[in-house]
């Protein structure tokens, strides 16, 4: 500070010197202010850059089935309401009708069209009721079936609990997970699993991904952690993001069974930003999320061992991963209509209904 | 801005940024667990 107070010849400040000091001080303050502003702006830029990239790459892709009308639902149940004009449910010719104690039907998202069609075809009108009297899909899980309604929609995880706990009579679902079997065992409940139709388990990628086909061995290697980049399976040089599903969901149970004793490996957090590989059921992906036999927009279903999943390749067994779906009920359910309805589902009429919904009947 | 004032302002801005980033990250982790994988894959950047 003192040095600034001297002029060029080394004389200490007079009036002119004070002005020079003041100018110097102002310059220093400006520099400091510039430096401080730069640090603050850089901090804000880093914050906005990081969060903006995270949003663009990840957050904006995360949509779920919880209640927000802006978010797409997993299933538009409104398309599959029994006894409603204009629903997408098939009608078949049958004289079979249930009366008396009507079983409560519940099920997985992918099987809503099947059990809703059962109600449409064999239950009396008025069996499906809504809280407040009118269907609404704007509550927590999206639908407002009344407690006394014969149709419920609790999806696989909650649906298994419902059938074990006795609040549903028949669950339409994929094979149970180990945890679901254990839950039933812990409650001392014996469940009966009756296969009622066939479905392909399919793998899919983004529509822009150039890979069209994988082998079952490659898929096991990807989920087993041995293959981590698309270039190793004929694709671009991008990390693979092997997406998994909620534990206990129908598709996750089938995937676990497909992997056998080979566990699904954890992935690096950076894989989240790679190109994804996912799995689902054919009908759900191609008829419920997509439009009537089309793949959902912007995704591509892969051929597996060179075979594309369609009704013919499922029926013939040519497609490598065909899973049964089941009617699940308690062995001790006292309602005689439960067994009666399941037997009807296995009859030619019941199997015709399965086919009419878009699924593949048992061979 | 005096150095001491700047330090306080900087700490407040940094703290807020870190807090919002942590909240964003926590939401992303939660939402990822419950997201539709079809939508997730369909919206992938290529």
Keywords, please?
heterodimer; A: 363 residues; alpha/beta; 7-stranded mixed β-sheet; two-stranded parallel sheet; B: 46 residues; mainly alpha; 2 helices; 83% helix
Q: Describe it for me?
A:
The complex is a heterodimer of chains A (363) and B (46). In chain A, strands 1, 2, 3, 5, 6, 7 and 9 form a seven-stranded mixed β-sheet that branches. A two-stranded parallel sheet of chain A has the order 4-8. The longest helix of chain A has 43 residues, at 15-57. Mean pLDDT of chain A is 88; it is low at 65-72. The N and C termini of chain A lie far apart (95 Å). In chain A, helix 2 crosses helix 10 (348-357) and helix 9 packs across helix 10. Chain A has helices at residues 15-57, 112-122, 155-165, 178-186, 216-223, 250-259, 282-289, 311-316, 336-346, 348-357, and strands at 105-107, 170-173, 191-206, 213-214, 240-242, 275-281, 299-301, 303-304, 322-330. In chain A, helix 6 (250-259) links the parallel strand 5 (240-242) and strand 6 (275-281). Chain A is α/β, with parallel strands linked by helices. Helix content of chain B is 83%, strand content 0%. Chain B has two helices and no strands. Chain B has 46 residues and is an all-alpha fold. The radius of gyration of chain B is 18 Å and the shape is elongated. The longest helix of chain B has 32 residues, at 3-34. Classes of the chains: A alpha/beta (363), B mainly alpha (46). The interface between A and B is large, with 46 and 29 residues.
